[in-house]
Amino acid sequence: MKITKFGGSSLANAKQIRKVFDIIKSDSDRKVVVVSAPGKRFSSDTKITDNLITLAKQVQTGQDIEETLSAIKERYMSIIKELDLDQKIKDQLEKNLKKMITASYSSYEQLLNAFKASGEDNNAQLVAAYFNENGLPAKYVSPEEAGLYVCAQNGHTRVLPETYANLEQLSQTQERIVFPGFFGISKDKQRVTFSRGGSDITGAILAKGLKADLYENFTDVDAIFAANPQIVGQPKKINHLTYQEMRELSYAGFSVLHHEALRPAIMADIPIRVKNTNKPELPGTLISKTRSENDYHITGIASSRGFMSISIAKYLMNEEVGFGARALNIMAEHNLSVEHIPTGIDEITLILRSDQFKSAADEKALLQELQEKLNADKVYQEKELALLMIVGEGMISTVGTAAKAMAALAQTGINLKMIDQGSSEISMLFGIAAADESRAITALYETFFKAEVSVEK
Amino acid sequence: MKITKFGGSSLANAKQIRKVFDIIKSDSDRKVVVVSAPGKRFSSDTKITDNLITLAKQVQTGQDIEETLSAIKERYMSIIKELDLDQKIKDQLEKNLKKMITASYSSYEQLLNAFKASGEDNNAQLVAAYFNENGLPAKYVSPEEAGLYVCAQNGHTRVLPETYANLEQLSQTQERIVFPGFFGISKDKQRVTFSRGGSDITGAILAKGLKADLYENFTDVDAIFAANPQIVGQPKKINHLTYQEMRELSYAGFSVLHHEALRPAIMADIPIRVKNTNKPELPGTLISKTRSENDYHITGIASSRGFMSISIAKYLMNEEVGFGARALNIMAEHNLSVEHIPTGIDEITLILRSDQFKSAADEKALLQELQEKLNADKVYQEKELALLMIVGEGMISTVGTAAKAMAALAQTGINLKMIDQGSSEISMLFGIAAADESRAITALYETFFKAEVSVEK
């Protein structure tokens, strides 16, 4: 049995929904379909989810909602019309939207969650109706009905363990199941969304709950590429990745699959296949626990911008028990998440995502607080950093691969702000200036994928 | 004006003390002599400081002290006899020792401090007597008289700031000053020693207080070597180092100069020259703020054993604000100093000195506590690690040097447990298995010092 999830662009219009239908119909193992909200039809188009967020703000602040609501309705209605669906589903969606707008909410957060969730929820109902009208018996199942429970903690939505047992019941269903992605319900029956792109997570949770043989994730790319195609022209497609490789690549910018979607799949050891809705005949990329060697010693090169560093210098800091703890406590008190902590002698550097600061004044105040509370010799920051990640289970030796990577970067004149390699034997992490990102990725790609690979043992 | 400090082996017997006399007499700028306690005369000899520690324990526990006390007395008396000094100094030292043993102490720590300090204190009096008897007017000055105040904090003895102004008064003294190294006095007039080898620190404090032009540190090696001579046969001598290079090298095992001795010298920008008492004609090694380029891109390769790592794995830990802080807080609660914190994705590694654990049970309990309190997926340790450090202000580019270093290690088949490079642009730190230490140092030395150096820009 397969769980098959489709992204927003795969469901953006009638033509795409027909492709989805064909894909599901062609394989009787595709029992569960997880749908996103309609995405962009063309690059300047607006995703329905963005419209719903605008609508939520307008409702909350008492602004005029007519135009936004019409745009949302129009997206569904044009699809319904093109698909030639009957009046029933049209009435149902209109009823759903009206109910959503007129319901009372105990907080703006609750309202926003309900509005955002409706994008997927209405689309699932629409897709189920289309399947049924075209001779493929299908049943819309909501997270409420299935018992997909979640809780929101520190801004993150996590699935509750009892969900998996609840979902097992769905295997009794005879029809194809059409399930809305992106949200679950809290213990008090409120809809709570995952982070953006979270339909991937719903699919993975269903795959684990239903003990699927495969989790198919249909999107609009042929495969996961070995490097960013916007930087490297026509990078190699990756045929097969391990979970861990995917996790590490997704950390540094490989966003085809939502990184939180890996956890349930890993726990239940369910392979994931990323495929293209527009070219379903292509094999795409398989992600599983292990894989046989590929032709390349490394699998992918990822990068992610938006980082900064704060360095704290203090003579003989290594002799002060708890110095690092005090520094990190100050960061935690400010609710700042620190991603990496490279250390020199007498110096500790904190690498964090820059968007965590609300203002330049907040940043300045933090630096001063670190200086004073730690009695530091010097505290300074560096902005506009990118993290660069080389990943591959095929690395014969990390040190050989690292030497090769660094030689490539050195020849390109790229200065490393940070090198961090802990115990992971399948990846290396470098910090560079964001301005060097493209040159660095290009140099590494040339080294590892274009040349004949020969890493010294 | 120069401060000239002599190590224990430079003062181990009469022959060595005559060399010290010649060195001081030959240069009228050598106004202040800082002396250690008599060190080893031959490799199986016992340092007087070790005898004093034994004596302290025996006095404290009421054991028989006769043999130990005799050994201590014998060391001084044989020197006095060989140097043909008069009865006065002999009586003085016997009086000092008697007073030390019969005094009352408020704690064992106070007793131990007083006993240890006596090694240098008596030697300073002896050396001053010898100088005077041989026509070089000299005055023994104690930390009490000079006002060298210290405080002990968390097991570390630090100089108090008012000391520097007090020491300035010494410049009025006409004679050569002979000053005992290794200890200062607390605000309540108790003697408090620095950490072992701390006479270097006394010398540096005097150099700063007296605004010396040079701090000479006489020991038993011709110079500081570019690598451990016990591993690399006849390594290159380093002519000139910067303070920062010395600090980084001393962190990882270069122990010629006590690492805490650098701070006062750096603060007052006083150059340090390490010289050999047995070959005072050799230039030794100069340590100063800046230096002109040398022939090598890197200056030294250091290594230090006795480290271990504790790795903590938890899926999506980077999204948990304060995870690192919580981990480090647990370490601090156990009074464990963490030296480096390399991070992977979903994994943080703590590198620390192994000798901080009292027992294997303590270690096991800590791992369990980390696992439970952090709700970690996995906590595991790796023992017997060594840190390897490559240092050089002459690194044209860190990344080029790192690439070269890693290629050398890869070719030697050495696995890197950790790579850590923060913001220091003059050093790179690697973690390796302690068993690989010699091979790693040899490989790096061959690469950077024996071959023609050509680091890519």
Observed structural traits:
homodimer, 457 residues, alpha/beta, Carbamate kinase, VC0802-like, 2 domains, eight-stranded mixed β-sheet, six-stranded antiparallel β-sheet, 14 helices, 23% strand, globular, aspartate kinase activity (chains A, B)
How would you characterize the overall build of this protein?
The structure is a homodimer of 457-residue chains. By secondary structure, chain A is of the alpha/beta class. Chain A folds into two domains: 2-220, Carbamate kinase (3-Layer(aba) Sandwich), CATH 3.40.1160; 300-450, VC0802-like (2-Layer Sandwich), CATH 3.30.2130.10. Helices cover 39% and strands 23% of the residues of chain A. The first copy, chain A, is built from 14 helices and 20 strands. In chain A, the strands form five sheets. In chain A, strands 3-6-2-1-9-13-14-12 form an eight-stranded mixed sheet, with helices on both faces. Chain A has a six-stranded antiparallel sheet with strand order 16-17-15-18-20-19. In chain A, strands 4-5 form a two-stranded antiparallel ribbon. In chain A, helix 4 (87-102) runs antiparallel to helix 5 (108-133) and helix 7 (162-168) crosses helix 8. The two termini of chain A are 43 Å apart. Mean pLDDT of chain A is 92; it is low at 452-457. Chains A and B meet through helix 9, helix 11, strand 16, strand 17 and helix 13 of A and helix 9, helix 11, strand 16, strand 17 and helix 13 of B. Strand 19 (418-421) of chain A pairs antiparallel with strand 19 of chain B.
